[in-house]
Amino acid sequence: MGLLRTTLLVAMVVLVDCQNNCITRINRAGICYEFNSPNFEDCVLKNGFHEQQALAHHCRNAIKFNQLCCPSNSLSPISTNIHGNATTLPISDRSQLTTTNKATSTTAKTELPEEDGFITKPEFKYHHYDDLEAFMRRFSEKYPHLTHMYTIGQSVRGRELWVIEISNNPREHEAGEPEFKYVGNMHGNEVVGREMLLLLIQYLLQGYGTSERLTNLVNTTRIHIMPTMNPDGFEAAIEGTRRGTKGRHNANGYDLNRNFPDQYFENELNRIQEPETLAVMKWSKSFPFVLSANLHGGALVANYPWDNNPQQKSGLYSPCPDDLVFKKLAKSYSTPHPDMPPAVPCNSRGLAFADGITNGAHWYSLNGGMQDWNYLHSNCFEITVEMGCSKYPVTADLPRYWLENKESLLAYMDQVHTGVKGFVLDENNNGISNANISIEGINHNVVSAADGDYWRLLVAGNYNITVQAEGYEPVTKVVDITDFAATQVNFTMKQEEKLDPQTSGTEEITTQAGPKTKVEPKPDDDLNPEIGPNDRLVPKNGTRPKPGTGSNIISNFEFRAV
Can you give the pTM of this predicted structure? Predict the structure, then answer.
């Protein structure tokens, strides 16, 4: 005899079926999860499912659905915010959502009116090179006001490395707007990222103007998506391969994620860069990227720098200067994923990563990785995401991978709008490019872009931020950062006072000690070969006298060609 019991707990509808199993359906970011457990108390009443981690821990057998799960019209639709906390949808949003009892066929509407949040049903399949190019062209041509399709170079075998830009003003950098990139399929046989990025392209473009969230993301971010960095390797890989290396390398036999210049070691794998590597390096320096992710497969974890250490020892935690920032970034991807925070291992011998994240070297040390290179040689912060346990899963699994990763892909992109941002300006409000932005206590600087705009990812806290630019007096401000939207802080810089070497007669120099002193120039100053007409008085060794020391300013400067 069947027993039906309905309870609303936070963001869940709980049913007990005729076998007396606990079945919990939860709508998380537009995805329905069903969890089965033989123990109703453990599954529901004891834990209450206030956290996704507790839910997955006590009800491990998960069946994913692509529709909302509100089996009674009397129950309020539930949504979740970026942190996974349950919130009731606003009244204006509720009108978009209709449900009927699952037993009589469920119909549902989310922000986007069709299945899985797409306006038109996506085609879940693997796109080989010609199909991939055709897919990208089709969407670029359909949305010319939002896209720009371009190539950054060619693979060893001459295949284009295609990128699609998505922005409300494509083809140009908008002052103050951060730039973001996703890179997929760096290892040719790790294919999930390749297909997820094609689906993301469709999702963003079809959602523009319909979903407030997606519209705002596109309007405020210049997004660059490269579905495959290794098209040659993909063509050699075999569908259904869970492990293995066939297709991993490029056509020259190089592992592209060992081929970047390394901060510690040079070897035969990264001494000479491959065409794909060189193309990505040039691309990464051609745009003011702020945030990036490199999508892999074969494990389930978000990996962050450093990927190696001077000892070349795996299992040794190797923090970069922005370790706290990278932990936050990695968690922004892992937290919405149903299986990453519970640290579900890929197999009985697999590693379980706490919170679904890991420091790269602590997992295993590698040289020549792309994420470390980004951090060292550009403004861009990059993590490496292992999207699933199978490197090349069968086609039928692609819908599940999309449902598991969709919210994570979006939540990670949102992080580009955190930390601090603003402009570095001169006294005439002109932007100053290449100004150096440093954070006291963090040994990693970024520089301003062509318009003087800058972005610096940070965790919440209070910071002393200093901006320096050649020919200008440095400026320091104390800034309070939150975990939410980026704090806007502009810096206006004054030009340094120049000491004209051609000045004759007596010159007055102001000292920090107070009164003015008279300096008599030597008769042969104009003939001094060490002081040229383009020389300027600049701080010695990049330092400045400390305020209140009483030292003469001129003694802390030297002439130097600029």
Answer: 0.72
